[in-house]
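Q: Two folds, back to back.
A: First:
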Amino acid sequence: MCRFSIGCTSSSLRVTYMNLYLGIDIGSVTIKLALIDEGGRFIDSVYLRTQGRPILAMQRGLKLLKGSLLENAHMSGVGATGSARYLAAAIIGGDVVKNEITSQVIATLRCVPEAETIIEIGGQDSKIIILRRDMVADFGMNTVCAAGTGSFLDHQAARLGIAIEDFGDRALRSRNPVRIAGKCTVFAESDMIQKQQMGHRTEDILYGLCQALARNYLSNVGLGREIRMPVVFQGGVAFNHGMVRAFKEALETEDVIVPLHHEAMGAIGAALLALEEMTTRKTKTEFKGFEISEAEYKTSPFECQACPNLCEIAQISLDGQVIARCGGRCDMWERKPAAQTAGGRSARTWR
């Protein structure tokens, strides 16, 4: 059970909220926005798929949050995390930009102080974080193989003609799960086709996929790491009850905790970091206001020649002024303020 002072709130409490803090966790597949108050209490969150258009998803998320706020609400700080955190901070006006590991840990320890291991699986990557005495002792990430991520389940559910929202409940109906080769999406798909042709029930194939992902995660991301209990399972994949059961079986424990707001833990952590930073700094937030949800941004590409990768960089402009850049294999352009160009030279030849 989640022990957040960040928990569900009643409408009678909402009238007292004045200073709010926004956290944004934006990745390649989904965006999560979370609001907390100055006491660290959870107010609201939004979970959306980016559908390849992160700025539009961000704008839509802001509109949804704005619709739930009262007139006396004031945004006092913004934190950004996720793979596109620098883009989010540039668009919205971020006060704090932190990596996913830090943000996930801050929110988890606020929710489950005794946590020893964090399993986080998102759309395109998966992470394991080993905690000892409230500190990060080790962590690992998988950003290469899709067979260990939520997109693996999404793809297979679509191939079977099943809504991903129904995946977990149907998997729990399995009586005799089949063994699926889960180390590679290609092998998994061919294995599934074979099992279907053999007449196995769809539910048994679905739960076999859950087991395959859990095995792949533990033998890849968790390889060589001591996984102690309690384990906190978070990220969008934790919506899948079949995956929760599969991890409990694979770890031979019932001590797998799924927090109440598991899908938004990164965003909640970013909001908590913004609260801490702004309380300490005592300066005005850089938040640009909810009006940016109506702004029209333009994107133009250019080729970075700083190394042999020759990455195509997306340049984001508003009213003719470049405000952000993103898209490279490294974060060189994302970290550099858009207004700055070395020696006044074209961004195309910047070193």
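A: Second:
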Amino acid sequence: MTLDPATPPPDTPPVPRGRGWGALATWDVAVIAVVIAVWIVAAVFVDNFANARNLSFLLLDIAAIALIAMPMTLVIITGEIDLSVASILGLTSSVMGQLWFVGLPLETTIVLCVLLGAVLGALNGVFVTRFALPSLAVTIGTLAMFRGLAFVVLGDRAVADFPFLWTGAVTSSIPGLPVPWVLVPLVLFAAVFGVVLHATPVGRSLYAIGNSAEAARFSGVNIAATKFWLFVATGAMSSLAGIYWTLRFASARADNAVGLELSVVAAVLLGGVSIFGGKGALPGVLAGVLLLGTLTNALQLANVSADVLNVVTGLLLIVSVLAPNLLAAARRAWARRSPPGQVPA
């Protein structure tokens, strides 16, 4: 049998078309329900949780995680991962502080820092796509390298004399609402990433790569270019998070956001994205970010130590990996036990 060169072999699995806006999975809905339940419990049993000032602080706390989690969602859906994001944030903070310290205008500094993040992400992308190295190993290496560079740039100093016009704008709330202004660009970014992932051919190609790179390649998807630009986007968004972090705390430090990559990955997986790729939706991820932030905030108000918070984050990371697999196994077992013709619940 002769095959057309543009036609995939008969054994090639079909390329999945991704998930539309209305195709939220059971896991996504469950996470949203858990967020609502946790908010209710925390409002009833944790002092000061439900007051407007604390809710504003909660949203400020999750903003950096949300900024990084959005592009990280796309990366993990393709079957890759980027663990260097918090180090990019820290290096951005160091460079931002140093450039401001030597007298560069803050507007110019911010633009240069975003470009720096894109370059650092491109470096990850080159190692993964050009040299075919596993992203886990590459980004563990750049995690250490970027954090080391942050200390080379700024040492153990802290730059804290940023203009109030900028620091105040980052932390101020919309008049009459416990909602910080920073939520406005977050919503815009969420809309952009959501449309790209769920309503464009690019999004469908990401699911295709995660499910079967071979099928995606036969369907004409440029896998290397797609992954490269995802790492660039993740680097740029991590730098934006670094700029936000620096202005929010009015402090540029090399050790800013150490360990934040675990919270980002935990939120993404908790939101229903499969660590193996090919599955997930942005609304579930945003719910995962909110759930992680709410639990952290409530436990802090309850005077729980930072060590316990780390334990909780680790447990949530394990649960987010195990629970979907256990649920899928339970469904398969139920399907085997169901009478012929009966559709399992």
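Q: And?
A: The two ends are 43 Å apart (CA to CA).
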